[in-house]
Amino acid sequence: MTDDRPRAASGRPGPPRRGERGGDRPMTDRNARRPLVPKALRADFPIFDQTIAGKPLVYLDSAATAQKPRAVLEAMTRFYERDYANVHRAVHTLAGRATEAYEEAREAVRRFLGARSAAEIVFTRNTTGSLNLVAQAYARPRLGPGDEIVLTPLEHHANLLPWQRVARETGARLVFIEPTDDLRITEAAIDQAITPRTKIVALAHVSNVTGAVAPIAHAARRAHAVGAVIVVDAAQSAPHLPLDVRALDVDFLAFSGHKMLGPTGIGVLYAKEEHLRSMEPYEVGGEMIDRVTLFDATWREPPWKFEAGTPPIAEAIGLRAAIEYLEAIGMDAIEAHVVRLTNLAAEALANEPGVVVYGPRTDRHAVVAFNVGRIHAHDVSTILDAEGIAVRAGHHCAQPLMTRLGVPATVRASFYLYNDEDDVERLVVGVRRVKEFFGDVFGEPVPGDHRGSL
Amino acid sequence: MSLENLYREIIVDHYKHPRKRGTLEGSGVLAVELKNPSCGDRITLYVRREDDRLAAVRFVGEGCMISMSSASMMSALVEGKTADEAEALARAFFRLVQGKPLDRATEEALGDAVALQGVHQFPVRIKCATLAWKALELALAEGGAAAGSPDGTPAP
């Protein structure tokens, strides 16, 4: 375990320490905890009430987007049917209910992240929207030639392209942390990349291709030691491990609702309030203003000054329902379950002759990227689809990483709380079927650099 | 739907033993690169035209079995044809992979490429099958080294 992120308070009950969320966990977390029984949980997800190609659906694409429990769908429907109105403007009853529900959703996110104040929670469209906001509204006015932005070559495009752009615009330089041969980000490599010239450190918490966890708390300490800020892409970690922004001491943290059982169209940007106060709005227009004259305007307080226009109201309410669903099971339990399944799958696949698994040997979170002999990932995916198994095939919006692996694409299986050992077994059997189908002609490994293989 | 129908022997054979794989150099050679950014498939098609004829056609690329076998079939088929004939074949191919009816003569004219008819039962794979043919269309339009982004919807 290379990660030094603090574990959520496992010694509960007890006085909450700073940075631990013991003091403000919701009732559902303490009193209504549900055991993590994937087969039982699947009954909460209407999508599993069907067959694909005549077989029960095995959904192994949650890293792309997660399925939705009925609690989320019903919360959104209920809002549309009974309470729907715009927020923050009108004074009629429905507007009051909608505003209250929207701000309660913000409070749920604050609690989920262990943030100090709801003013630190900005609702955006998705992770990409959050990261562009940081790059343009925080970084751009503060960077210049000679400044450095530290990234890794494993980043999802969402945490690469906004920095490429801001570097072009300001003359700042991108510096990449060198991963290990098995594609992990170590503390030593972070120490080497961060220098007094570093102004921004932007890292994925969990890689969407290798499933490796980056030592975020360490990176935050190093960044702060040189006066830089740290931006965390938590798109792949928020769904399945306990997050605590105060204990990690990160400046910015971004994730999407749809990968953690919530709806599409809503993302979160956590930012320390001092940063939000010092930033100009990213977009301007309705909702986010204080006073407007024909030639000038002033802004509302954070977080509202970063939420121009009508926000995703029902989506925020859906996200809250998703958070409460996750909390009722417990993020610790979800993490343990997902890590166990993922490592099981990685090992089983690596033991299949002709299959190459990319990334670290152990401690994998949620995703397993692999290839089957010389068979292209799309062809693998089509055969698995005929077995009722949904996986991702392609470059996973991480093209520089594919280049490093020396392959055009990989197959990616990703796991969540509704998956179980049977799904892993179905995947392995499906991969055997792929090999059978295409014959032993394709038994050699895919060409390229296999340093990342198990 | 049948996977055997999608991956017929002839398709696998073109993938394993691609016809017309390679590059062309020299004056009068047009190179068209086409990518599918959503999945990473890519092809570079080389065409040397002599008068109105596609005197030589070669391709290099990387992608799934459907996209690469389609490139092999297309290149072998259109080499030696006139631009008008090649364009008519491309139109016929787009109809084929959408499952639209073709008369027997047109089917025969498509040669090995008819094996990709089964793709119409796998709509998400249509863009794989059409990548090379879209590159051909660009080459015929003399789009130079233009790079395009097929959206998966075959041209009408």
UniProtKB/TrEMBL annotation, chain A:
GO terms for molecular function: cysteine desulfurase activity; pyridoxal phosphate binding. It comes from the Bacteria. The keyword DNA-binding does not apply. CDD domains: SufS_like. Its EC number is 2.8.1.7. Keywords: Pyridoxal phosphate, Transferase. Its cofactor is pyridoxal 5'-phosphate. One of its GO terms (biological process) is cysteine metabolic process. Residues 1-36 are annotated as: Disordered. PANTHER family: CYSTEINE DESULFURASE, CYSTEINE DESULFURASE 1, CHLOROPLASTIC. This is Cysteine desulfurase. It comes from Brockia lithotrophica.
UniProtKB/TrEMBL annotation, chain B:
GO terms for biological process: iron-sulfur cluster assembly. Pfam families: NifU_N. Residues 7-128 form the NIF system FeS cluster assembly NifU N-terminal domain. GO terms for molecular function: iron ion binding; iron-sulfur cluster binding. InterPro entries: NIF_FeS_clus_asmbl_NifU_N. Belongs to the NifU family. This is Putative iron-sulfur cluster assembly scaffold protein for SUF system, SufE2.
